[in-house]
Amino acid sequence: MINARPAAPAIGAWGQCRAEPVTLLGMKNVRLILPLIAALVAVGMAVRYGNGQAAPTSRSPVASPQLVILDTDIGDDIDDAFALALALRSPELKILGVTTAFGNTELRARLVSRYLSAVGRSDIPVTAGVETKTDNVLTQAAYALRTPALVHPDGVNFLLSQIRQHPGEITLIAIGPLFNVQAAIERDPATFRKLKRVVMMGGSINRGYDGRNGEHRPPDAEWNISRDPAGAKALFAAGVPIFMMPLDSTQIRLETAKREAIFAHGSPLTDQLTLLYHQWRELNPGHATTPTLFDPVAVTYAIRPDLCPASPMRIEVDDKGFTRSVPGVPNAQVCLQSDEKGFLKFMLSRVTGE
User: Fold this and answer.
1) Cα torsion for 321, 322, 324, 330, to the nearest 10°?
2) What share of the chain is helix, strand, coil (3-state, %, to 5)?
3) Per the confidence metrics, is the pTM higher than 0.90?
4) What mean pLDDT do residues 155-176 have?
């Protein structure tokens, strides 16, 4: 005869001896309890973090700002001052430094130093590029002369040293004649090729400078290119990605209402724009009082390329500074049509934003 083993006592709810209740608890009541627990947790989190505030989640990746160097002939036309303002107000950009180009580059550097000091950004290095001869009027010289005379470092050396420190990471925003670019390529072409890209304002493909009444005219030798055609030729042959904003897409006028909205804003940044605009206007006899925002389009492209879609082209530069699209392997991406309304909305919101 087989001795039967005594049955183990069944464990019922709350430790009492029954077998079936535990099965019922697992299959039925747990399904009721779990939503209740979840609701209690949600209430607790809401109490802790406040109504309308999301509880912390796992860290999401945050895009790092682009490293940029601005190469500018600020002090002649007024659009460079607006371009610098837009760059300063764009958290997508980390400005490693400003290099000045064309003519009296030391005086231009003094202008930038005063500008940056006035807006609390003296942390940004300012360097003077290659000095050249010109009879062009530096309309904002009075602003520049009211800052102490300093000897600014060599802008070309600064550009090359920053590329060596950040290979493949720097966007050079070139909004002046290309003397500094030409010198950098001549000094160290291998280092220059380690730029991430060049975003430039310059050239003219299908549209030249508009007439006084806004009429479109045939292609011109655009100013930045015509001052140094050799520099433009060197750039297009350098083997770096180039994004070109020519006259075709950059002749966006800052009409009175929008201009006055900026000047009336009263921030340290817009106050500098107001001062520089009035000096530019006073020393431009016969010039239109409405500025054309050529250069800010290049800064905008670095942040919002959707506002100026670019297409691949092969660009050829002649000795007079004309830029033409020719057959062959593309050496640039060129924007021929920008979203003018979208650009103006973007720029005004940035420059007057707090």
Assistant:
1) 10
2) 40, 15, 45
3) no
4) 98
